[in-house]
Amino acid sequence: MSNLFMQAAIEEARRGLAEGGIPIGSVIAYRGEIIGRGHNQRVQKGSAILHGEMDALENAGRQTADVYRESVLYTTLSPCAMCSGTILLYGIPRVVIGENQSFMGEEELLISRGVEVEVLQDPECLDMMRRFIAEQPHLWNEDIGV
Amino acid sequence: MSNLFMQAAIEEARRGLAEGGIPIGSVIAYRGEIIGRGHNQRVQKGSAILHGEMDALENAGRQTADVYRESVLYTTLSPCAMCSGTILLYGIPRVVIGENQSFMGEEELLISRGVEVEVLQDPECLDMMRRFIAEQPHLWNEDIGV
């Protein structure tokens, strides 16, 4: 089950890459169904806030707290401070991460606030990000505020 | 100077209220000039992520780290975990807050990471939020994930 959702997040990342964007994808699952999916839109929409996780949450639309509190967020890359803060805002209790070797986000903050964090170290996620960072370091730095 | 920027953030909040939305506004100032301004768009755009601060950052467009690191974010209300996380992502060094009595955001987290936080306890900001929360508690709760 978990792997199917991560596969959908990876598909989103690939779609972003094919569009000329940053290859990070995300999916929100509620009671075993995908309610939102998306990918980083910095290049495509000129967006400073649509990281993959944010795009998935935005595409899930307005939800009440009880939905978020039974949802799982899947993301191909360790969530940055913005995306982690959003997970905390909405009380999403569980986050499954493709990999955290090319970028380590705010996993410690999430864990300290009681969020369950699982890291898969998925080779495909890692390979996609490593290539991208090597090929477009300036774009990547812009995305993480460096 | 600081008050002029907060006045612009308050104007944004009023604009949001006039549109039937949640009255929270924000402005990003870089070297004394407004580079982005916005207001909460939950109602207007059906958005789960466009809090006032996020809308202002999105409207500022793609910026490099050196711009954010010399910017000040003004917001009529204490920034939630999402908006605080975004401030941390981009390394915005200073945040000026209209009030934190109707809602206390992640000010301690910001301060613990070295962000300078100033709270004005502006009566107009407080009055706008108190009225709004009393009139539309369900919408307000949705916005803060409660």
UniProtKB/TrEMBL annotation, chains A, B:
CDD domains: nucleoside_deaminase
Annotated Gene Ontology cellular component terms: cytoplasm
Compartment(s): Cytoplasm
Record-annotated CMP/dCMP-type deaminase domain positions: 1-117
Keywords (A to Z) from UniProt: Cytoplasm, Hydrolase, Metal-binding, Zinc
UniProt cofactor(s): Zn(2+)
UniProt-listed GO biological process terms: nucleobase-containing small molecule metabolic process; pyrimidine-containing compound metabolic process
Pfam families found in the cross-reference section: dCMP_cyt_deam_1 (PF00383)
Molecular function in Gene Ontology: diaminohydroxyphosphoribosylaminopyrimidine deaminase activity; zinc ion binding
Domain of life: Bacteria
Pathway: Pyrimidine metabolism
Subunit structure: Homodimer.
Name assigned to this protein: Nucleoside deaminase
Taxonomic source organism: Castellaniella ginsengisoli
